[in-house]
Amino acid sequence: MKCDQRAVRFTCLGSSVVGIIDLPERPLPRGVLVAAGHPYSRLGARRQFAMLARALARRGLAVMRFDRRGVGDSEGCDYNDSDVRAALQEFCDQVPSLQEVVLLSPGGGAAIATARACAAADPRVCGLMLLAPWGRSRRAHAPQLAAVNEGRLADAVPARPGTPALTLVSSHDAAAVYWRRAPAPSRVRRSAGRNLALFAEQLCGFPGPVLVVAGEGDAAARPAASRSEAAGHERSRQAELAQLASLVTRAGGGARVRIAAQPPSAGRQRDFYDNGGEPDSARRAGLTATCADWLVSW
Amino acid sequence: MNAPIHLVPRVEPFFYDVDPGTRFCLYHAPDPEVASRGAMLYIHPFAEELNLCRRMAAQQARAFAAMGFAVLQIDLFGCGDSCGEFADGRWEQWRRDLAVAARWLAQREPGPLYLWGVRLGALLAMEMAAERKVEGLVLWQPLISGRTCINQFLRQEVVMRPEDLAAGDLGRAARAGIRHLRAELAARGRIDVAGYELDLGLARSIEAVEATQLELQPCTVHWFSSSAMPRRLSTRWDGANIVLHYHHVEPLPFWSDPARPECPALLAATTAAFEGGAP
Fold first, then answer.
1. In terms of CA atoms, which chain A residue is nearest residue B185?
2. What's the mean pLDDT when you consider all of chain A?
3. What's the rounded Cα separation, in Å, for the pair B128 and B101?
4. Nearest-CA residue of chain A relative to B252?
5. Do A279 and B162 touch (CB under 8 A)?
6. B49: nearest Cα among B195, B256, B198
7. How many helices (H) and strands (E) does chain B have?
8. Phi, psi at B55, each rounded to 5°
9. Could you tell me which of B57, B60, B111, B112 has the C-alpha nearest to residue B79?
10. Which of B165, B177, B257 sits opposite A142 (nearest CB)?
């Protein structure tokens, strides 16, 4: 479908907020509002939200992205739920045919809490999409990458190569744990289990349909140095996803919460000198299809 | 209590048609209460650095606007919110985009033009200052070589093997990894690097640019960096009527570290350099 892009500026608590709407010629009554907090701007890491928004707009969905207060091009500091509510109002003013809005956010408890608060305040909020950082997210590794780029190589050495991959939840914390002071694997597993139970409970607390797209988990782990190590990471991820699904069912959210997994990267990280497999662009298209299909399925 | 009244919008985001497609722009109108200082064109850095520098650029742009500058930020083709795939970007296209942006800015602010570039954007600014007359350059942590930019970019994709880590010579391992990636890029034409698709044509067009090869026209340069001023460049500029101000700023890699999106010392130093009349 033919699409247009519209730059918008609105005010929230006295700060100018900058956003962009990807607008199909005939938008469906259901739109998507990208409500990502720090460290993500409206672009997402590696332009991921920009590309996703364009792709969803071609499927007929109006998508708005914006910089929270104190992030990117927006003024102010210390954003809170009021930015999302102000953006929601702006989105509906700009696209009068919108009847309901699905929030999209990189995953985590804070995103769910924001979505719940917005749904409670505004009945137009009808669904939630949680994306774990997708693709080979480098954000969690950024301090190490910076260290490498600046030649501070001692800072770039991971604390304990071979620590198992954590997936899905609190990847930033997990990365910090991994790189700085890696605890015993059994302790990591126990803590991951607790996080998972809490996460399932939070997911079921959102009043509408929820889509979770699990990342491949590499944000929390050193890239696998061999095929067997990568296979091990993938097994632990699948086990964790299965555990999450059963926790969600037990909490009564089985019908509303859909859990999908981003296919693991088959790229360079599998083997240092082997670069077979699917490029990032193909994996990006897969994620777009997962989101778009789910958005029009209910 | 009276709420502050803003007669002009503080920032104006818009899409601008530039062949091919559209570019995302942000215009910060100068404060009408102060004397006009001229136009300031912001040139963003490469790939993910553009994203990570947004907060710093927005803050400094607002400070420049408050000082009386008309400030334009443009996302170049294939970058940020502008149209196009990253892999299809080219140095030449970026130069054309900047020429269009400078013309747009001149229609609003006929005064002197300053270019403000970050990292690879600083190299673009220097090249533009060789081609046309500009009043001055504001360069943040400039890269003086396109090859360095591509090397640093590729380095993000180098995976250290356990044996490299054990051997301890990470510098050599990283260099070997970069060489390997370069060979792969040459053979395949396009490779994925840190989530971006790097095209051989784009890499070559960037690598062809060296600051030491450029003949800058006379202007004032404010060089803000945590590393020393490259001697080759300052010597070259000595006899060329270029007034160089070097400002050492404590290193805070806001362009590569999402945990540190701000470097207040750099904002303060930049604002100080332009406060109180013409620099």
1. A275
2. 74
3. 12
4. A146
5. no
6. B256
7. 10, 10
8. -65, -45
9. B57
10. B257
- When mean pLDDT is compared over A18-32, A218-232, A244-258, B1-15, the highest value belongs to A18-32
* Higher local confidence (pLDDT), A160 or B161: B161
Cβ–Cβ gap B258/A39 under 8 Å: yes
Residues of A with Cβ-Cβ distance to B58 under 8 angstroms? 72-75
Cα–Cα distance measured from residue A272 to residue A268, given in angstroms and rounded to the nearest whole number: 6
Q: Kindly provide the b/e burial profile for residues B219-232, where b requires at least 16 CB atoms within 10 angstroms of the residue's own CB.
A: bbbbbbbeeebbee
Residue B275 is classified by DSSP as S
Confidence of residue B160 (pLDDT cuts 50, 70, 90): low
CA distance A94 to A91: 5
Q: Which residues pair with B137 in a beta bridge?
A: B115, B221
Beta-strand ranges (E) seen in A25-178 are 30-34, 63-66, 100-106, 125-131
Given the structure tokens 């899905």, which residue do they identify? A168
Nearest CA in chain A to B5: A14
| pLDDT tens-digit map of B24-83 | 999 999 999 999 999 999 999 999 899 999 999 999 999 999 999 999 999 999 999 999
Residue B224 in contact with residue B141, Cβ under 8 Å? yes
Nearest to A73 among B14, B26, B257 (CB): B26
Outline where A67-184 has alpha helix (H). Answer: 81-94, 109-121, 142-149, 171-180
Lookup: tokens for A292:
């778009």
Q: What is the ipTM of this complex?
A: 0.91
CA distance A13 to B255: 28
With a CB cutoff of 8 Å and minimum separation 6, the contacts of B235 are none
State how far the Cα of A265 lies from the Cα of B3, in Å rounded to an integer.
Answer: 52
* Interface contact A18-B13, CB threshold 8 A: yes
Asked if A142 lies within 8 A of B258 by C-beta distance, the reply is yes
Mean pLDDT score, A75-96? 93
Higher pLDDT, A96 or A244: A96
Residue A207 pLDDT greater than 70, yes or no: yes
Average pLDDT (A85-114) is 91
As a whole number of angstroms, the distance between CA A174 and CA B100 comes to 46
Pairing mode, strands A100-106 and A63-66: unpaired
Residue A267: how many CA atoms within 13 Å on its side-chain side?
24
Residues 6+ apart with CB under 8 A from A277: A265, A266, A267, A270
Q: Over 60: is that where the pLDDT of B238 sits?
A: yes
φ/ψ of residue B145, rounded to 5? -140, 130
**Chain A partners within 8 Å of B184 (Cβ):** 275
Q: Which helix (H) or strand (E) holds A298?
A: none
